[in-house]
Model the fold of this input.
Amino acid sequence: MAEAFLSSPSNNLHRLSNHYFLTIFPNRHSATRLYSPPPRSLIDTPHHGSKSDPQQVHISLAGEDYMRVTWVTDDKDVPSVVEYGTTSGEYDTVVYGEHTSYTFYSYTSGKIHHVKIGPLEPSITYYYRCGGHGPELSFKTPPSTFPIEFVVVGDPGQTQDTVSTLAHVGDQDYDVFLLPGDLSYADEDQSRWDSFGRLVEEYASRRPWMVTEGNHERECCAFTAYNARWLMPYEESGSASNLYYSFNVAGSHIIMLGSYTDFKKGSDQYKWVEADLVKVDRKATPWVFAVMHVPWYNTNEDHKDEGKSMREAMEDLFYKARVDVVFAGHVHAYERFTRIYNRKADPCGPVYITIGESMEEPDKGWHISLATKFNRHQILLAEYS
Ligand SMILES: [Fe+2]
Done:
């Protein structure tokens, strides 16, 4: 699992301004601790409720002041309805939404509900329940202004280490969860998507989870399960695809990109990124972040140069727009670059961060192998300075 909060006092990104916090989770295995820890076991998270009970509940930001509530029921007759309010047990608003399902070879998903609720007030706890019954859940909306705190976790999978990391995340009073791809490691075993949804529900039902896809979401290249289960606000951000989108939250504009979707100049994703960045109002959102799966800058031998073609296609867009920080996963080992552009240190380029440690073997599933083979620092400087 790659995980990143920017919080070490020694980390010069700890306080990006006097009122803005990105917090990096303490890395148990940084680039300076170069060995592979023993494997930890896979988790299977069963459903203990009835077929009509909501399961796999998660929420995501869905345009200004709105939240999307997503959950799954085995019972196809359960309505796609969310009741909510600001007092526990009192639901003064009822919203109906949409639903979908999908098939993947012999597997047929449950009923996947998506209900967009709002407008919501900032920094407020809302109480809600799904499907007209079921347990009461709650979430807190992000603030409207600084300070705001993000958690960035990538490549989570579903092992004992996932449990540990999420427990650490749950100890923080953060606002928004960012996930740069490789969610469930289902790898075409669709029941593992269900298990993953149940595993993360405790956390994903309380804070918005904003995700983008990694290579493990491709599953025969169609992203079928990912798109059905993790609907993100692409329509709200003028994108034609759930595989790339953007959103604003508390003074930040965040673009979530698709490393495995066409990014060449002239492609739909390229044109959308170009148009999206032009529209950014730096007075309203002085911070601009990008999140993607494959890092554009990476000196680790694992996945080295995989992001090169995307960088070469899109780096100018980031540079012209003065993107502040770019987060990626995939490598499962922490690395941070100074502000950089076109392979040279540049005070106007973004900071690139490959987020933290991994308990998953880089893109081979849930086995253990930290990415340890970084180029020597001197070589790094020669390559990127
Ligand atoms: Fe990956």
